[in-house]
Specification:
Layout lengths: L10 H13 L3 H14 L4 H8 L3 H14 L18 H11 L15 H12 L5 H10 L17 H16 L17
Helix pairs in contact: 1-2, 2-3, 3-4, 5-6
């Protein structure tokens, strides 16, 4: 028969729980503190698990970790496992690439697309990510894609453009005094 666990908290532990419920900005900490408070108030672990939509072993784990570590036991502990492919060196290479024009790196295109960016950073770092993950990383770091502005300067007549700019500057200076010209659409009858 399993040993019965006493879920009663002492005054110090209870004050830590109450303070965590009031002050913590983390939803995880609040959820765990709520579970421990419910256990302290006499709820059964199964009821707490059902109310908070977690597994029964999770409730026991939260309680034992709090007893062992105190307030730090309420916080999230990273789990072991495969480290993320997009580590700090990958993200640094990604951001450095975004700040560099593709032409400076020897490419014949002028815009970075997600596919081109991913391919280049994969060659530099040796780490391959799917395009959607790269898109997510950029969004998390507040990088946004903007449409390029079309520049037709190379296709324009330079002299006509210069004349138009000078003409606009003259118009901005003030009102133009009308002059009579032969190109007027209005005229007196003979």
């Amino acid at each position: 028969m399993p040993k019965k666990i006493d879920f009663t908290l002492n005054e110090t532990e209870l004050s830590i729980i109450e303070e965590s419920l009031k002050q913590s900005g983390s939803a995880r900490v609040v959820k765990r503190a709520t579970a421990l408070r419910m256990l302290h108030l006499g709820q059964r672990p199964r009821e707490v698990a059902d109310i908070l939509a977690v597994s029964l072993p999770t409730v026991y784990e939260w309680f034992h970790r709090f007893r062992a570590e105190g307030e730090a036991g309420l916080d999230h502990h990273s789990k072991s496992g495969r480290p993320p492919t997009a580590d700090e060196s990958y993200i640094k290479a990604l951001e450095e690439t975004l700040e560099t024009e593709p032409g400076e790196l020897g490419y014949d295109f002028t815009l970075w697309t997600i596919e081109r960016l991913n391919q280049h950073v994969s060659q530099v770092t040796g780490k391959q990510l799917v395009d959607e993950r790269v898109r997510t990383i950029l969004k998390e770091r507040d990088w946004v894609y903007r449409r390029p502005k079309e520049d037709l300067a190379a296709k324009q007549d330079k002299e006509a453009r210069k004349w138009a700019e000078e003409f606009l500057d003259e118009l901005k200076k003030g009102p133009v005094t009308p002059t009579t010209t032969s190109s007027s659409l209005w005229m007196k009858r003979p």
